[in-house]
Design brief:
By secondary structure, this protein is α/β, with parallel strands linked by helices. It is built from 6 helices and 7 strands, in the order αβββαβαβαβαβα. The strands form 2 sheets. A 5-stranded parallel beta sheet has the order 5-4-1-6-7.
Length: 182
């Protein structure tokens, strides 16, 4: 019974953290922007969640023309190409020069997204991360774990009809990342 109560309290704390964090320094120039991947529908189409992230990336990259973007996400078992390749294609189709886009297409988790992206970034410790709002707390926690010193955030609204499931999944992912992703 005590374990169940502790578990429920932890889940409530994680829920508060997910809902509280929104954006941090979203109008600040950063040399590198990391856009975290999400599911793709086919070789040309991001899901709504990913499309919202990409639209924010386009807005940011148009505002800060010197920034480079790292698109992240490998190829899932049910995906025909990598998430990152679809993301790059989407950005190019919406006017972002392909020279500004770095592709990290080997990762299968947020921890790997950020750890693999760090290899592209040699001279900076400050980054901008773009993801869904519900994902920002864990993204920031994991960015610090892989060695980024200053993390700025931009979060998109969740347009998925499964947003409650996404938030619940994120709460469990925070618990997993808290103990396992090192």
């Amino acid at each position: 019974m005590v374990v169940l109560i502790i578990f429920l309290i932890l889940m409530l704390v994680f829920l508060c953290l997910v809902l509280k964090i929104n954006m941090i320094n979203s109008n600040k120039f950063c040399d590198y922007v990391i856009v975290l991947g999400a599911r793709i529908l086919d070789e040309n189409t991001p899901c709504k969640t990913l499309e919202c992230r990409l639209m924010l990336a386009i807005e940011y990259l148009n505002k800060f023309s010197e920034s480079k973007v790292i698109v992240t996400g490998g190829q899932g078992l049910d995906e025909v190409v990598s998430e990152a390749s679809v993301m790059k294609k989407y950005l190019v189709e919406h006017g972002i020069n392909s020279d500004r886009i770095l592709v990290e297409d080997k990762s299968t988790s947020t921890f790997e997204n950020l750890n693999n992206s760090k290899k592209f970034i040699k001279d900076t410790e400050e980054i901008m991360i773009i993801s869904s709002r519900y994902h920002l707390f864990r993204a920031k926690m994991l960015a610090f774990r892989v060695g980024f010193k200053k993390v700025n955030l931009i979060g998109s609204k969740n347009r998925s009809r499964f947003w409650k499931v996404d938030i619940l999944r994120e709460i469990f992912a925070i618990a997993k990342s808290f103990f396992i992703d090192w």
